[in-house]
Amino acid sequence: MATLSTAAYSEQAGNTEASREQLILEHLPQVRWIATRLHERLPNNTSLDDLISTGVIGLINAIDSFDASFNVKLKTYAEYKIRGAILDSIRGMDGIAPHKRKRLKAIQKAMAMLEQKLQRAPGEEEIAAELGISHKEYQDSLLELRGVAIGSLDAAMSDSDSRNLMYYLADDEENSPARMLERSELERVIQEGLEKMPKVERLVLDLYYRQGQHIREIAPILDLHITRISQIKAQAVLRLRNYIERRWPTAHGLY
């Protein structure tokens, strides 16, 4: 089969279905490579086939929306879309059961509204009032959401699997200027988000993520019950998720 160049494809009137299918086939190895590299960083029960299938959807989207006039190679654009599609799917593995996701969204929305209104990080009682529930009910909700993760940055993370916030951002081998800039920018956004949250929440995240302490190890350090540490961690993660979604373009699929 003759290889169809990007230029030739873009010049064909209507971009025929045959040329489209040929480009998909030619770029399938790229999908598998990206999916495999990301799969290596995910829990063992993650399906590689599912990641590849999602990546193929990203590839098709790249081919259908590609515009050669932007002076970008199709392979580069396709990697961007493939990676974005897969990371979007990874973001869905945030450790929250489907029936709890509605509560998660409600808390994040309340936090965001109060932060905008108060121009500071709202306290637990303020968030509870915004939700129309008691302080205890809010704290109980935080306990139920204690498995929440920070999207694609720590997908499917559990208390027994502490990893650096940047673990899922990019492969260590991907040291191109663009990837290095991406990592640097995300690190900056994360640091900004941490600095804007209450000190105790920032400290819990630092001990848990950066220093690799378990919840049960953090409790005596702060002289708080393990249940309280779980609540603080859940609330801190929700704040950071909100901040990243507002400041970091990947929250909208722009990887």
Q: What is shown here, in short?
A:
With 255 residues, this protein is mostly helical. The protein contains 11 helices and no strands.
Task: Give the terminus-to-terminus CA distance.
Answer: 32 Å
Total number of β-strand segments? 0
Largest sheet: none
Taking all Cα atoms into account, the compactness measure Rg is: 21 Å
Shape annotation: elongated
How much of the polypeptide forms β-strand, as a percent range?
Answer: under 5%
Uncertain segments of ≥5 residues (pLDDT<50)? Answer: 1-14, 151-173, 250-255
Order of helices and strands: HHHHHHHHHHH
Distinct helical segment count: 11
Helix/sheet category: mainly alpha
Helix content: 55-70%
Integer average pLDDT? 76
Word description of this protein:
Helix 2 crosses helix 4, helix 5 crosses helix 11 and helix 9 crosses helix 11. The protein has 255 residues and is mainly α. It is 65% helix and 0% strand.
Question: Which features would summarize this protein structure in a list?
Answer:
single chain; 255 residues; mainly alpha; elongated; disordered N terminus; disordered C terminus
In terms of topology, how is this protein built?
Layout: H1 6-11, H2 17-39, H3 48-65, H4 74-91, H5 98-118, H6 124-131, H7 135-144, H8 177-195, H9 199-210, H10 215-222, H11 226-247
Helix pairs in contact: 2-3, 2-4, 3-4, 5-6, 5-11, 6-7, 7-11, 8-11, 9-11, 10-11
